[in-house]
Predict the structure.
Amino acid sequence: MQTLAVDIGGSGIKVIALNELGEATTERSRVETPNPAKPAPILTEIVSLAAKQGEFDRVSVGFPGVVMGGIITTAVNLDPDWVGLDLAAVLSERLGKPVRVANDADIQGLGTIEGKGVELVLTLGTGFGSALFVEGKLVPNLEMGHHPFRKGETYEEQLGRAALDDVGKKKWNERLEKAIATLKHLFNCDYIYLGGGNTKKITFDLPQNVKIVPNVNGLLGGIALWRD
Protein backbone atom coordinates (compact mmCIF):
# COMPACT_ATOMS: atom_id res chain seq x y z
CA MET A 1 0.00 0.00 0.00
CA GLN A 2 1.37 3.35 -1.06
CA THR A 3 0.10 6.43 0.78
CA LEU A 4 0.24 9.90 -0.73
CA ALA A 5 0.89 12.32 2.14
CA VAL A 6 -0.21 15.93 1.58
CA ASP A 7 0.58 18.90 3.81
CA ILE A 8 -1.44 22.07 3.17
CA GLY A 9 0.26 25.10 4.71
CA GLY A 10 -0.25 28.83 4.73
CA SER A 11 2.84 29.33 2.56
CA GLY A 12 3.39 25.98 0.82
CA ILE A 13 1.73 22.74 -0.29
CA LYS A 14 3.90 19.62 0.00
CA VAL A 15 3.42 15.99 -1.05
CA ILE A 16 5.39 12.77 -0.75
CA ALA A 17 4.67 9.04 -1.19
CA LEU A 18 5.09 6.64 1.74
CA ASN A 19 5.29 2.87 1.99
CA GLU A 20 3.47 0.81 4.65
CA LEU A 21 6.23 1.53 7.19
CA GLY A 22 5.81 5.28 6.71
CA GLU A 23 9.10 5.58 4.84
CA ALA A 24 9.37 8.01 1.93
CA THR A 25 9.53 6.32 -1.48
CA THR A 26 9.65 9.52 -3.56
CA GLU A 27 11.21 12.95 -3.29
CA ARG A 28 9.11 15.60 -1.60
CA SER A 29 7.44 18.05 -3.99
CA ARG A 30 6.41 21.58 -3.00
CA VAL A 31 4.62 24.55 -4.52
CA GLU A 32 3.67 27.92 -3.09
CA THR A 33 0.18 28.15 -1.63
CA PRO A 34 -2.05 30.10 -4.05
CA ASN A 35 -3.15 33.58 -3.03
CA PRO A 36 -6.01 33.88 -2.25
CA ALA A 37 -5.85 30.46 -0.58
CA LYS A 38 -9.28 29.26 -1.68
CA PRO A 39 -10.21 25.57 -2.00
CA ALA A 40 -10.40 25.35 -5.82
CA PRO A 41 -6.82 26.47 -6.68
CA ILE A 42 -5.32 24.52 -3.77
CA LEU A 43 -7.14 21.34 -4.81
CA THR A 44 -5.89 21.86 -8.37
CA GLU A 45 -2.30 22.13 -7.09
CA ILE A 46 -2.68 18.95 -5.02
CA VAL A 47 -3.99 17.00 -8.03
CA SER A 48 -1.09 18.31 -10.13
CA LEU A 49 1.50 17.36 -7.48
CA ALA A 50 -0.10 13.94 -7.00
CA ALA A 51 0.21 13.16 -10.70
CA LYS A 52 4.00 13.47 -10.42
CA GLN A 53 4.33 11.07 -7.45
CA GLY A 54 3.58 7.82 -9.27
CA GLU A 55 1.04 5.22 -8.16
CA PHE A 56 -0.60 5.40 -4.73
CA ASP A 57 -3.52 3.65 -3.02
CA ARG A 58 -4.74 6.18 -0.47
CA VAL A 59 -4.21 9.76 0.66
CA SER A 60 -3.49 11.46 3.99
CA VAL A 61 -3.90 15.23 4.29
CA GLY A 62 -2.67 17.61 6.97
CA PHE A 63 -4.73 20.81 7.15
CA PRO A 64 -3.97 23.99 9.17
CA GLY A 65 -7.16 24.09 11.20
CA VAL A 66 -9.66 21.98 13.10
CA VAL A 67 -10.86 18.94 11.13
CA MET A 68 -13.84 16.88 12.32
CA GLY A 69 -14.83 13.80 10.35
CA GLY A 70 -12.96 15.04 7.29
CA ILE A 71 -14.83 18.35 7.38
CA ILE A 72 -12.96 21.63 7.85
CA THR A 73 -14.30 23.68 10.78
CA THR A 74 -11.61 26.40 11.03
CA ALA A 75 -9.16 27.83 8.47
CA VAL A 76 -7.68 30.96 10.04
CA ASN A 77 -4.59 31.12 7.82
CA LEU A 78 -6.33 30.19 4.57
CA ASP A 79 -9.60 31.43 3.05
CA PRO A 80 -12.96 31.34 4.92
CA ASP A 81 -14.41 29.34 2.01
CA TRP A 82 -12.74 26.24 3.51
CA VAL A 83 -15.05 26.21 6.53
CA GLY A 84 -17.71 23.53 6.14
CA LEU A 85 -15.96 21.81 3.22
CA ASP A 86 -15.83 18.01 3.33
CA LEU A 87 -12.22 17.95 2.16
CA ALA A 88 -11.90 14.18 2.47
CA ALA A 89 -14.88 13.60 0.17
CA VAL A 90 -14.01 16.31 -2.35
CA LEU A 91 -10.36 15.27 -2.71
CA SER A 92 -11.31 11.59 -2.86
CA GLU A 93 -13.55 12.36 -5.83
CA ARG A 94 -10.77 14.33 -7.54
CA LEU A 95 -8.07 11.69 -7.01
CA GLY A 96 -10.18 8.54 -7.17
CA LYS A 97 -8.66 7.25 -3.92
CA PRO A 98 -9.78 7.07 -0.28
CA VAL A 99 -8.72 10.18 1.67
CA ARG A 100 -8.32 10.91 5.37
CA VAL A 101 -7.77 14.42 6.70
CA ALA A 102 -6.45 15.67 10.06
CA ASN A 103 -5.00 18.79 11.60
CA ASP A 104 -1.45 19.40 10.35
CA ALA A 105 0.08 19.67 13.84
CA ASP A 106 -1.61 16.40 14.81
CA ILE A 107 0.04 14.69 11.83
CA GLN A 108 3.40 16.30 12.66
CA GLY A 109 3.00 14.81 16.13
CA LEU A 110 2.07 11.37 14.83
CA GLY A 111 5.31 11.39 12.86
CA THR A 112 7.34 12.55 15.87
CA ILE A 113 6.20 11.30 19.27
CA GLU A 114 7.70 8.42 21.22
CA GLY A 115 4.35 7.47 22.75
CA LYS A 116 5.47 7.90 26.36
CA GLY A 117 4.04 10.29 28.93
CA VAL A 118 2.73 13.73 28.01
CA GLU A 119 4.11 15.00 24.69
CA LEU A 120 3.34 18.42 23.21
CA VAL A 121 3.99 19.34 19.58
CA LEU A 122 4.16 23.00 18.53
CA THR A 123 4.42 24.05 14.88
CA LEU A 124 5.91 27.45 14.14
CA GLY A 125 4.94 28.53 10.65
CA THR A 126 2.40 30.91 9.16
CA GLY A 127 0.40 30.22 12.31
CA PHE A 128 1.00 28.51 15.65
CA GLY A 129 -0.12 24.89 15.61
CA SER A 130 -0.36 22.51 18.54
CA ALA A 131 -1.00 18.85 19.29
CA LEU A 132 -1.08 17.08 22.65
CA PHE A 133 -0.51 13.36 23.19
CA VAL A 134 -0.88 11.31 26.38
CA GLU A 135 0.78 7.88 26.28
CA GLY A 136 0.69 8.08 22.50
CA LYS A 137 -3.02 8.96 22.28
CA LEU A 138 -4.01 12.25 20.65
CA VAL A 139 -6.09 14.80 22.53
CA PRO A 140 -8.26 15.95 19.57
CA ASN A 141 -9.04 19.46 18.33
CA LEU A 142 -6.56 21.37 20.49
CA GLU A 143 -6.35 24.92 19.10
CA MET A 144 -3.83 26.46 21.48
CA GLY A 145 -2.75 29.03 18.90
CA HIS A 146 -5.95 30.99 19.45
CA HIS A 147 -5.80 30.88 23.25
CA PRO A 148 -4.76 34.06 25.14
CA PHE A 149 -1.01 34.20 25.77
CA ARG A 150 0.17 37.65 26.84
CA LYS A 151 -0.66 41.36 26.51
CA GLY A 152 -4.19 40.55 25.36
CA GLU A 153 -2.95 38.57 22.34
CA THR A 154 -3.03 34.89 21.45
CA TYR A 155 -0.06 32.59 20.89
CA GLU A 156 -0.55 32.94 17.15
CA GLU A 157 -0.75 36.73 17.28
CA GLN A 158 2.49 36.80 19.27
CA LEU A 159 4.38 33.99 17.54
CA GLY A 160 3.00 33.54 14.00
CA ARG A 161 4.96 34.56 10.92
CA ALA A 162 3.32 38.01 10.81
CA ALA A 163 4.53 38.68 14.36
CA LEU A 164 8.05 37.51 13.48
CA ASP A 165 8.15 39.86 10.52
CA ASP A 166 6.72 42.70 12.60
CA VAL A 167 8.83 42.55 15.79
CA GLY A 168 12.00 40.87 14.49
CA LYS A 169 13.85 37.72 15.44
CA LYS A 170 15.19 38.87 18.83
CA LYS A 171 11.81 39.78 20.35
CA TRP A 172 10.13 36.79 18.70
CA ASN A 173 12.67 34.48 20.38
CA GLU A 174 12.04 36.14 23.74
CA ARG A 175 8.32 35.51 23.30
CA LEU A 176 8.87 31.89 22.26
CA GLU A 177 11.07 31.23 25.29
CA LYS A 178 8.29 32.56 27.55
CA ALA A 179 5.68 30.49 25.72
CA ILE A 180 7.66 27.27 26.16
CA ALA A 181 8.10 27.96 29.88
CA THR A 182 4.37 28.69 30.26
CA LEU A 183 3.27 25.57 28.38
CA LYS A 184 5.71 23.34 30.24
CA HIS A 185 4.07 24.39 33.51
CA LEU A 186 0.54 24.17 32.07
CA PHE A 187 0.83 20.61 30.77
CA ASN A 188 3.78 19.30 32.83
CA CYS A 189 5.11 17.82 29.60
CA ASP A 190 7.66 15.06 29.42
CA TYR A 191 8.66 16.31 25.98
CA ILE A 192 7.96 19.31 23.76
CA TYR A 193 8.71 19.08 20.04
CA LEU A 194 9.05 22.15 17.83
CA GLY A 195 8.33 21.86 14.09
CA GLY A 196 7.58 24.21 11.21
CA GLY A 197 9.62 26.50 8.99
CA ASN A 198 10.29 29.14 11.64
CA THR A 199 12.22 26.77 13.89
CA LYS A 200 15.30 27.83 11.91
CA LYS A 201 14.88 31.29 13.48
CA ILE A 202 15.36 29.99 17.04
CA THR A 203 18.49 31.43 18.65
CA PHE A 204 18.22 30.52 22.37
CA ASP A 205 19.26 27.29 24.07
CA LEU A 206 16.28 24.99 24.42
CA PRO A 207 15.49 23.19 27.68
CA GLN A 208 16.66 19.59 27.89
CA ASN A 209 13.25 18.07 27.12
CA VAL A 210 12.50 20.42 24.21
CA LYS A 211 13.80 19.69 20.72
CA ILE A 212 13.39 20.77 17.12
CA VAL A 213 12.10 18.08 14.75
CA PRO A 214 12.31 17.88 10.93
CA ASN A 215 9.54 19.51 8.91
CA VAL A 216 9.18 16.33 6.84
CA ASN A 217 7.57 14.74 9.94
CA GLY A 218 4.44 16.69 8.95
CA LEU A 219 4.26 14.37 5.93
CA LEU A 220 5.67 11.17 7.42
CA GLY A 221 3.00 11.15 10.12
CA GLY A 222 0.33 10.77 7.45
CA ILE A 223 0.71 6.99 7.47
CA ALA A 224 -0.65 6.95 11.03
CA LEU A 225 -4.10 8.09 9.83
CA TRP A 226 -4.55 4.62 8.33
CA ARG A 227 -3.63 2.66 11.46
CA ASP A 228 -7.08 1.54 12.59
